[in-house]
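Q: Given only this backbone (640 positions), what sequence would you predict?
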């Protein structure tokens, strides 16, 4: 029945076994009348697709063959399969995504099928579509065993070249053709054994339970059945190996067939032993380096130190590395782990120690000595930068060792209390008021080297970027920098860094920020947003944040190494040891006394400590310590 233009049509899908059927109908006077029907016979590869993908493929085939009817009108899809979820789910495979894009141009409406109606016609049409007889080889028709895997093997020896061929067939007719080339000398009988063992290993890897093997070698078959005795030591080893592998199957049979019935396997073995490489795409060519009966060399594994060793040492014995930085890192990481009955567990934002709810409550009360809900927050702890976190989180065993505020002061401290403050030697940072302020909140204070801004390079680089951003935002209105500063900081924290490859926001929260552009323009994140899955995903990102930070740290160390190599290529290295006498640059130590007649260097001074390579602490010859640290670029050797 011919449909009217822009009239809504209904499509029914059916798929009994190897055939897809689609029928297009229209509603007329409370009855459904057929418009067009399409059938498609699935190929051997397509029959192995899951059922829901077969229905989706049937819809795609209907849209291709009935494109004239699909364009310009709405098509209602009546089926019991969840096609809409299949075609729109984010984790869909490659072909499903291709089908979803192809169907996106049509106006499709997916309706659950309630009554049969035209579905009966679609089923009848599919039942009357026959796929025809299977194209079976004469050998498969001669030896057909339902419910069992079949294996045809043959070995070949051509001069100094040895090869084997095997054909493994599943109960449903799926075949694997493999040619094996041996890179070691073999006899003809040994090649037959190698082919049989390779086929049995392949069947075992495919989890075959019932296997029947066919070989044209009477010696191999008689050895397995026990009719022939093995006198050669290598033949005994091969026969024992075949019996051992056969025990991995529930049923295994080995039968002899004539060469005329094993022609395909013989051809594969000759291809493997020949020089040619022109094999078809469905034949797998592999190379064997050693015989199957040779025992593989196994290296004994000794459990040594790994990434858990320093954490276990600190949690069990309180042992820390001698390096202060490594010790602080171990303290911070150990707060996320605990040891119960000799096993180390990691605390999770989603679940605590991966136990049941009741067990979780008991473990939390026993191990953490705080209510269980405190360790299972709905959101991640607030962190605004790498070294900042809320006071409550630090007090819950995160390695906080600073000043403990009083009760009336604790309520005033909410967030963003850093552990360490590094600055240069300007007067606003070395004054008594600022130092007392830091000491009051337990913040450790450190200074960079005098007249060496590279010592505080991270801050200098950040300030340069922020300053450039403010200049672009303000233009001529220089007085509004305070109003534009939050936007510049937001842009800085959501821009990937070259050294780490990640944004500071992701390094702090585990998730990329939703930029304002995504709010106005729809993106994949906004379209697929779901409250429940989004909350679970955020918690999962927090759990994986430690791994992301470790990977970013490795990239940062690689970047620093490359930068150091580039910088050191044009720098003359200058190093000093404890007890060496040095001179200080007058422009750095006493900038007010500079002049044309003044010397460029003053001293000498004595090196008393190497803070780190290139940075030193000095004292006068009378033993008075010099304040601050000094970089090697501002010092030079003093020769008496």
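A: Predicted residues:
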């Amino acid at each position: 029945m011919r449909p009217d233009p822009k009239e809504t049509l209904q499509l029914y899908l059916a798929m009994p076994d190897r055939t897809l059927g689609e029928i297009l109908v229209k509603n007329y006077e409370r009855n459904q009348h057929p418009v067009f029907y399409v059938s498609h016979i699935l190929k051997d590869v397509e029959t192995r697709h899951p059922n829901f993908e077969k229905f989706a493929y049937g819809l795609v085939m209907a849209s291709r063959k009935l494109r004239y009817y699909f364009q310009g009108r709405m098509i209602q899809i009546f089926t019991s399969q969840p096609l809409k979820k299949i075609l729109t789910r984010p984790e869909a495979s490659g072909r499903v995504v291709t089908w979803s894009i192809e169907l996106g141009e049509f106006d499709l409406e997916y309706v659950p099928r309630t009554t049969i109606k035209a579905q009966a016609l679609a089923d009848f049409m599919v039942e009357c579509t026959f796929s025809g007889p299977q194209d079976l080889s004469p050998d498969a028709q001669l030896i057909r065993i339902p419910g069992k895997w079949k294996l045809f093997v043959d070995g070949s020896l051509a001069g100094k070249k040895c090869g084997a061929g095997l054909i493994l067939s599943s109960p449903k007719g799926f075949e694997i053709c493999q040619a094996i080339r041996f890179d070691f000398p073999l006899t003809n009988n040994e090649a037959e054994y190698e082919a049989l063992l390779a086929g049995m290993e392949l069947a075992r890897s495919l989890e075959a339970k019932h296997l029947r093997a066919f070989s044209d070698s009477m010696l191999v078959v008689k050895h397995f059945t026990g009719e022939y005795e093995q006198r050669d030591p290598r033949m005994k080893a091969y026969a024992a190996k075949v019996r051992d592998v056969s025990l991995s199957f529930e049923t295994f049979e080995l039968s002899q067939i004539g060469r005329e019935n094993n022609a395909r396997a013989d051809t594969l073995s000759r291809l493997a032993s020949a020089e040619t490489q022109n094999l078809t795409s469905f034949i797998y060519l592999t190379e064997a380096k050693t015989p199957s009966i040779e025992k593989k060399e196994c290296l004994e594994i000794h459990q040594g130190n790994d990434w858990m060793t320093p954490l276990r040492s600190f949690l069990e014995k309180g042992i820390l590395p001698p390096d202060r930085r490594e010790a602080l890192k171990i303290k911070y990481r150990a707060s996320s782990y605990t040891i119960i009955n000799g096993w180390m567990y990691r605390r999770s934002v989603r679940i605590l120690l991966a136990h049941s709810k009741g067990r979780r409550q008991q473990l939390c009360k026993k191990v953490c000595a705080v209510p269980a809900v405190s360790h299972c927050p709905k959101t991640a702890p607030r962190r605004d930068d790498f070294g900042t976190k809320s006071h409550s989180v630090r007090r819950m065993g995160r390695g906080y060792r600073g000043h403990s505020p009083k009760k009336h002061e604790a309520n005033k401290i909410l967030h963003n209390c850093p552990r360490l403050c590094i600055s240069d030697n300007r007067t606003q940072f070395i004054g008594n008021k600022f130092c007392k302020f830091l000491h009051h909140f337990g913040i450790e204070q450190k200074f960079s080297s005098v007249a060496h801004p590279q010592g505080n390079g991270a801050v200098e680089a950040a300030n340069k970027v922020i300053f450039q951003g403010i200049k672009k935002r303000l233009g001529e209105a220089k007085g509004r920098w305070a109003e534009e500063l939050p936007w510049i900081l937001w842009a800085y924290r959501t821009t990937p860094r070259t050294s780490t490859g990640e944004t500071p926001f992701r390094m702090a929260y585990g998730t990329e920020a939703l930029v304002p552009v995504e709010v106005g323009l729809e993106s994949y994140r906004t379209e697929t947003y779901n409250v429940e899955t989004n909350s679970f995903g955020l918690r999962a990102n927090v759990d994986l944040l430690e791994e992301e930070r470790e990977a970013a740290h490795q990239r940062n160390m690689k970047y620093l190494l490359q930068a150091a190599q580039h910088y050191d290529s044009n720098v003359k290295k200058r190093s000093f040891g404890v007890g060496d006498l040095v001179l200080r640059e007058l422009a750095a130590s006493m900038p007010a006394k500079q002049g044309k007649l003044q010397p460029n260097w003053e001293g000498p001074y004595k090196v008393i400590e190497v803070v780190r390579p290139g940075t030193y602490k000095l004292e006068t010859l009378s033993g008075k310590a010099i304040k601050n640290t000094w970089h090697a670029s501002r010092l030079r050797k003093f020769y008496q």
